[in-house]
Amino acid sequence: MGQNDEVPIGWPLPADRLVLPLIAAPMTRVSTPALVAAACSAGIVGAFPTSNCGSNAELDEWLDEIAAAVRTTGTTADDAASVPTPGPVAANLIVHRANKRLDDDLQTIARRSVELVITSVGNPVPVIDPLHRAGCRVLADVASLAHAHKAVDAGADGLVLLSAGAGGHTGWANPFAFARAVRRFYDGPLVLAGGISDGTALWAAVTLGYDLGYMGTKFIATRESGADPKWRAAVVSASLDDITLSTAPNGVTASMVVPPGGAGQPAGSAGHTVSGVDAVTTVAGVVAATSDEWHRARARTSTALRA
Asked: Coil, strand or helix: which one is 22?
């Protein structure tokens, strides 16, 4: 893909900020500063849960570390022309009342004017106004039409539709039906969470009415991820049939991967897209491969339309 070329319109950021309409999904224990910085440097959105930081003070340190890493990537004369404009950082706030650090993390994100904030596992209403006053854009993670209506009414800048097959906290709705049902009353930015295994799936999501897609499972099996070796190996070796539904400690339904021959013991979270993971690679490698797949899918569509 050419630098930041032809990303679909509808996203509340300049199109030239992204080389693909893609978010490296915020993942518990997986999203590290290195992973987020590598995603942003590759030209997509890099996201992380603030709960991955051990303390509110560490959240400040992570934001500094990510910013420094992104600034120092691709600054030599030889590669400057080929490096995309960095994508934005997104902080994921768990807004459930069980999150004892919510107020402190919210204040830090607002003080730092983090460009994007993704709310999840709870009601986003109390945090939207303070985030907007700080200049932050808010994407609300929703798993039902009722939640989507509430988030839109509260002033969310976009919706993340948590669909069946997502890794970790998962939804139940078919992503095709979910998008079309939401598009009956909402014309703002939509993000598909669940089922984006490659650039072909990402292109299909855009044609369906989504503006961006989450990709999570593939980034578990990267060198920059915080997943332990057993977890990464399970993602590489498993297929869709090895994904099982479980209940997370907070009571939310979650998709987990059971290694083949693992006697039923999950190695960690993962989505149905494990069937598209073949090796441990790098964040840049995942983005480059997804970009190639995206272009091939677009070309096939163009050929079909001309036929």
From this structure: strand
